[in-house]
Amino acid sequence: MLRIVILSFLQLFVGFSQGSRCRLPWTGVWLENGNELNITHNSIGNLGNCVHKSRDLYLLTIDTSRGDCYRCLITFPVHENVLHYKTTQCIFDPEMSLEKCSQLMSADTTMHTLFRKEAIPVPCPIEAPMNFTYQTNQGICNSRTSHLHRCAQYDRLALHYQACPEIPNRESAIWQMECIGSWQSFGLQYFAARVGYSAGEQYRCFIHDKTGSSGRIGESADAGCQELTHIGAAATTLHFRQDSPVYSGCEFPETLYREKSRNWESMLLGTYHRVYHGSWISSVKGRNDTVWTCLQKVSEESNEHYTYRTYVTKGCKVGYQCVRVHMRKPHIAHVEYGEISPSESFADCSDFPVETRDTLILHGSKEACPIRGKHYSSTCSDPILQVGCSSKYSMNLVRDCSLPDGDELTCVANFKHEDNTFIIARDSLSRQLFCMTYVSDRINLLRVYDRVSCEDVSVNSATIYLSFNFTSDSCSPSLLTGFLYSATSEVASAFDIYQFIILLLVATFWNNL
Fold first, then answer.
1. Does 121 fall in a domain?
2. Start and end of every DUF7044 domain (predicted)?
């Protein structure tokens, strides 16, 4: 029995050693002309399993109806996201070896290119912005100037191709480019990118030739990249010249960033905003959505109202935009945005038509709730709204009387404007911000709005999410509850409670004398 176990172990060890010698280093899912190819430590998709290797030369095998099929494969790993390779057809030779493989490979063997699926973008080895003319196999476009610039996501570029009379079938188009790898080969600079109207639509290889502030960029005809051995073989060639980047000429309100940048949350879109002196960035899930560069402070009506002329990159669209900021409180900012104009000589920003309004809330801020108490509606036997009863920041809202537990919210901010008290509260479960307006004059009317800027103009034209009238009562007759609510911190300190109990005992003692 022991002899059988030892023999099995030796067989396993030998098999493991052979597998280790042929271990493939580029595991993952790859794309070849749009088709997926899965590479494991031992196999390359339907090309076969690795039998032997010597540096970048591999011998693969796969079972077929005719017997064992052998393939020779040589790889050229230029980047962790880009892999070139050459391979032979099926060879039915049981004596096949690496020595024979080295004789079968030639310079004429077709080069294939693999791109790692869902590769993380890398910086493109070209500088933006730039203007260019272009040349295809249909002709040369010299009469119109196209341009390239960075998108809000810094690792993505936008190419604005102009239509040209010299190329009748070529229409104007905007293509996006997201680089996934760059390398050098025989002194030439190459890079690979996802290109198209959306990331991942197509893959292309590029060759880059630059002298001073101008140069050429050549693009492969397809994802095979096999013809792109020099820039003269490119299917499309861009003749470019560098443009000057846009720099900030002013600073946004200091309240928005203070000593360092601060996080602000949009009530309209749920995006996050960070301001760095002359730069303002909106992001979604950590990816830039919009970037504003401060060009000119047009007016400062007070310490609360500011108007700016900005250069904006929204997605991959660029232009100029008027922005007005109203600091309602240190943690509340109302923002008005004009339309985005492609022309630098657009209207004076001191008076501009507002296209979008938004309210920004400083992330992590909260404020004691107004209208403290239990509030009842004629439609429910239990309170539909409890405010400040468990803590001065708490709010419980019942949307459906059959579900009396309600939604827990935290008061973030509040302010008064004319007859309305505006309340901004965050749902504790979804983390979404809601805008509420409360009118106390005779009617006790509360209205709740979803995804809207929390100010008069926006709520007056918005659809009401929830609305009800109510009567009110106190949270509790307990003196201790009232004391805790009026404490300056969310939870009163042990010393504060101790003082209150002593005072209460003293008062009780004197009343009993």
1. no
2. 21-102
Buried b (16+ CB within 10 A) or exposed e, 455-480: beebbeeeeeeeebebeeeebeeeee
pLDDT of residue 496 exceeding 70? no
Measure the CA–CA gap between 375 and 470, rounded to whole angstroms: 6
- Give me the torsion for CA of 500, 502, 505, 506, rounded to 10°: -110
Q: Is 89 helix (H, G, I), strand (E, B) or coil?
A: coil
Tokens 């011998």 belong to which residue? 59
73 and 88 assigned to the same domain:
yes
Edge-first strand order for the sheet with 407-417 is 466-469, 445-450, 433-439, 420-427, 407-417, 394-397, 385-387, 373-376, 471-473
Are 390 and 335 members of one domain?
no
Contacts of 165 (CB under 8 A, 6+ apart): 143
Contact 197, 175 (CB under 8 A): yes
Q: Which residues pair with 77 in a beta bridge?
A: 83
Confidence of residue 21 (pLDDT cuts 50, 70, 90): low
Q: Which residue range forms the structural domain that includes residue 47?
A: 12-116
pTM, full prediction: 0.79
Peptide bond connecting 129 to the previous residue in cis, omega within 30 degrees of 0: yes
Asked if 123 and 180 touch (Cβ cutoff 8 Å), the reply is no
Q: Is residue 123 part of a domain?
A: no
pLDDT surpassing 80 at residue 476: no
> Buried b vs exposed e over 278-292: b needs ≥16 C-beta within 10 Å?
bbbbbbeeeebbbbb
Cα gap 513→491, rounded to integer Å: 34
Buried b (16+ CB within 10 A) or exposed e, 240-257: bebeeebebebbbbebbb
Mean pLDDT value across the chain: 85
Q: Tell me the C-alpha distance between 44 and 52, whole Å.
A: 13
| HSE (side-chain half, CA atoms, 13 Å) at 30 | 23
